[in-house]
Amino acid sequence: MASIDFSKIRLTTGLSMKLEVEGGDSKRHNVNLIGYIPGRTVLITTPLLGEHRPLLLRKEQGVIVRFFSNKSACAFRTQVAHICTTPAYYLHLTWPDRVEAGEIRKAERVLANLQVTIVNQSSTTGERGTGAIVDLSTTGARLETLQALGKPGDILLMTSKVSVGHVTRVISIEAVIRAVLDRKELSNSAAAYGIEFKYVSDIDFLALQAFVNAQMARGAER
């Protein structure tokens, strides 16, 4: 776990976060980052309960904010500085001097069968194909395809649907081929690759992490 300066993280507006009230029931509420003024305040949406009722908070209430950034799980403690109700419900949080960040363990690899569409961005002809992610972690995966689509060093753009519970999200992953594999696990595969994720947006990364966690909860860890 590392302690880093909040202003150096450069978070994007709209980033999904989790807010926990200190001394409360430990429930983590969904919020979004509105923006921040370095050294002064962090603005987030107010958590909404049933019938769009705002979570009751008080000024100087201690809270913990958690989020993912650059494949790291981050958290900071702060206080509610101002509670705003117009033009929408949002909060000013006191500026956190430091953020605790820890890299998500690369060992969390689970079985999967995610159907993907693929574009080889390194190909001059923009080769396209389909395949499946056979197993994955939040940093890489084993990809098998219906046709040969690249060589080590090529950049692939993959699109897939990830479902966790009743929620389904279309995610995009940019990955680099690290190895061409000899062994294929799917009967109709023409090629197999070991890939490393190069870029995943924060929102898609949250969906991917939720999927990995759900698979692990089902005992699919390998």
Describe this structure in words.
This protein has 1 helix and 14 strands. The chain has 222 residues and is mainly beta. The chain folds into 2 domains: 102 residues, Electron Transport, Fmn-binding Protein, Chain A (Pnp Oxidase, Chain A, Roll); 108 residues, Beta Barrel (Thrombin, subunit H). A hairpin with a 7-residue loop joins strand 9 and strand 10. It is elongated, with a radius of gyration of 20 Å.
| Overall 3D form | elongated
CATH superfamily of the largest domain: predicted glycosyltransferase like domains
Q: Name the beta content range.
A: over 45%
- From the 3D structure, determine the CATH topology of the largest domain: Thrombin, subunit H
Biggest sheet descriptor:
6 strands, antiparallel, barrel
- Total strands: the figure is 14
Over all CA atoms, what is the radius of gyration? 20 Å
Strands of the widest sheet, in order across it, are: 2-3-4-7-6-5
What structural class should be given to the helix and strand makeup? mainly beta
Helix % is under 10%
Query: Under the CATH scheme, which architecture of the largest domain would be assigned?
Result: Beta Barrel
**End-to-end distance:** 25 Å
Roughly what is the average pLDDT, rounded to an integer? 84
Low-confidence stretches: none
What is the element string, with H for helices and E for strands?
Answer: EEEEEEEEEEEEEEH
